[in-house]
Write a structure and sequence with these properties.
Layout (H helix, E strand, L loop, with lengths): L11 H15 L7 E3 H8 L3 H13 L3 E3 L4 E4 L4 H22 L5 H19 L3 H17 L4 H18 L6 H19 L3 H24 L3
Antiparallel strand pairs: 1-3, 2-3
Length: 221
C-alpha cells in the first residue's frame, strides 16, 4: 500500500465554532466586538453556511447576541454570570469527584502528585500564569477519573468560560498559593479514600476562586 488511511476530520462548522469560541473566551475577540457572517467567511476562506451554524451555536451559549439579520455582538459578562458559573462548576466537579473515588489507584495518584510538584515549582518561582495552566490540568485530571465523557466535557467548558473573568483580572501570586494548598489537601484525602473531605475541599477551592475573581473583576475588596 502506498497510501495511508485518511483520518476522519471534524465537520467544518465544528472547526469554525471551536476557533471562534476559543477566541471569545481567551479575550482575543474583545467584548462589544461585532461579528458578521460575510466578513468571517471571507477571512477564513470558506462558505457562509458553517460560519452561520457556528454563530448560532455561540448564540445558544449566550456568548454572542444578535444585533441584526446577519450580525452579532460579543455578549458582555457580569458578576451574576460568575456566581452562576461557579455554582454549576461546583455541582459538576463534585459529582465527577464522587464518581472518581473508587476508581483512583496508585497510578492516578502518582499523576496528580506530578502535577502538584510542577505546581509547587511554579508557585515557588512566582509564576502564577504558569500555575493557571497547571490548575486547569489538575481539574481536568480529577474529572477524567470519573470516566464520564459528559462530565468531563461540561467541566472543561465551564472552566474555559471562567477564563473570560480571569482575563479581566491580574494573575495573583497569593491566589495561586491558596489554590495549591487546596490541591494538596484534595490529593491527601483521595489517597485516604476520604470522599467527604475531598469534595468539601474542592468546593472550598472553587468558592475561594469565585470570591477572589469577583474582587478582581468588580474592583471590590
Amino acid at each position: 500500500m502506498f497510501v495511508s488511511k485518511i483520518k476522519k476530520q471534524p465537520p467544518l462548522r465544528r472547526i469554525v465554532y471551536e476557533q471562534l469560541r476559543n477566541a471569545l473566551l481567551s479575550g482575543a475577540i474583545p467584548s462589544g466586538t461585532k461579528l458578521y457572517e460575510t466578513k468571517i467567511s471571507e477571512e477564513m476562506g470558506i462558505s457562509r453556511t458553517p460560519v452561520r451554524e457556528a454563530l448560532h451555536a455561540l448564540e445558544r451559549e449566550c456568548l454572542i447576541i444578535g444585533i441584526d439579520k446577519a450580525g452579532y455582538q460579543i455578549a458582555d459578562i457580569a458578576p451574576e454570570d460568575l456566581e452562576e458559573l461557579s455554582e454549576i462548576r461546583k455541582t459538576v466537579e463534585t459529582l465527577a469527584l464522587k464518581r472518581a473515588i473508587d476508581r483512583i489507584g496508585e497510578n492516578e495518584i502518582r499523576d496528580l502528585e506530578e502535577n502538584l510538584e510542577k505546581s509547587e515549582s511554579a508557585v515557588a518561582g512566582r509564576k502564577p500564569e504558569q500555575f493557571v495552566q497547571l490548575d486547569a490540568e489538575f481539574h481536568h485530571m480529577l474529572c477524567s477519573l470519573s470516566q464520564s465523557d459528559r462530565l468531563i466535557r461540561m467541566a472543561d467548558a465551564l472552566r474555559k468560560e471562567m477564563t473570560r473573568f480571569r482575563n479581566r483580572t491580574k494573575e495573583d501570586q497569593a491566589l495561586a498559593e491558596v489554590a495549591l494548598q487546596h490541591h494538596q489537601r484534595i490529593v491527601m484525602f483521595l489517597k485516604k479514600k476520604d470522599g467527604l473531605n475531598a469534595t468539601r475541599t474542592l468546593n472550598e477551592h472553587i468558592e475561594h476562586i469565585r470570591e477572589e475573581t469577583r474582587k478582581g473583576f468588580t474592583g471590590t475588596t
